[in-house]
């Protein structure tokens, strides 16, 4: 099987992770570096925002040429916002075109500039995997003939329990951490109540946004750090007694990649309660949940005082993600099975 993965995102957990996992399970895979074809510097950022300009035209032309040369069995347009209907139709003459999007291109985001080509091109796709259940029905309604849910994942080569040195613990150790982006939604109240409740909170996010949305007294009382990635992100998790997880209202999230990364690192997950999360991890056994600030504070206080229970839940959460196949290799095997069935 020959697969061409077409870049649309910017970080290692997306297309590069797919390519690595596919290669390691025996698939011949090539990454098409879409961003290399847009203009450099500020002009390139403008092109990628407007999805117009000579770089976008060059990108589409080069992709068609690459598909003509490689003749892949499957071409995956990851996110796919660069490509219009005509480009997808041209690709379909030579390859099975399928897509995936980790963000929510529907809902409140439907009309934003980033998706103006994406929505018009959807009926041209041969298949598409949705990140969240609600997107599956929306993709079908948009005219995609084959659609399936593909959950997020953890990466075993980087998401695993770590034993930290004394210096690392001195740098990262805390009662509660949250590593993720800040939105003006429920998480602001949750984080505010955690800090005002007297908990030792480390926050890893975009500092300027945190200062914009969080109350001044809260920002003064927490350890506020910029976004951490790679090994540093995992060390921050593993040095924390509790890791929080919130879900984006604008993305209509009911789980995220962190829902799997945190347990994979052997860390106690305290998450917003959703039906989907409760189905994935048994409450009070493999993870813990909250629906209100009071419940968040009560559970944080309880589990910080009961180390053995907290560690047991963290261990069972770790066993669940590994046993239940929430790793990227399992997701890629599902992807292969789905697209192969769709093409047959």
Write a concise synopsis of the structure shown.
Helices cover 46% and strands 16% of the residues. It contains 16 helices and twelve strands.
Short descriptors:
46% helix; six-stranded parallel β-sheet; alpha/beta; 344 residues; 16 helices; 12 strands; Rossmann fold; globular; single chain; 2 domains
Q: What is the element layout, followed by pairings?
A:
Layout: E1 2-6, H1 15-24, E2 28-32, H2 41-50, H3 54-70, E3 74-78, H4 85-92, E4 96-101, H5 116-121, E5 127-130, H6 133-141, E6 147-149, H7 166-172, E7 174-179, H8 186-196, E8 201-204, H9 207-213, H10 216-221, E9 223-225, H11 230-238, E10 240-245, H12 258-264, E11 269-272, H13 275-280, E12 288-290, H14 293-305, H15 307-323, H16 328-343
Parallel strand pairs: 1-2, 1-3, 3-4, 4-5, 5-6, 7-8, 7-10, 8-9, 10-11, 11-12
Helix pairs in contact: 1-16, 8-14, 12-15
Percentage beta strand? 15-25%
CATH architecture group name of the largest domain: 3-Layer(aba) Sandwich
Query: What is the residue-averaged pLDDT?
Result: 96
| CATH fold naming of the largest domain | Rossmann fold
The class by helix and strand makeup works out as alpha/beta
Oligomer: single chain
Largest sheet: 6 strands, parallel
The tally of strands reads: 12
User: What is the domain total for the residues?
Assistant: 2
The first-to-last residue Cα distance is: 14 Å
Question: Outline, from the CA principal axes?
Answer: globular
The level 1 CATH classification of the largest domain is: Alpha Beta
Low-confidence stretches: none
- Which series of helices and strands comes N to C? EHEHHEHEHEHEHEHEHHEHEHEHEHHH
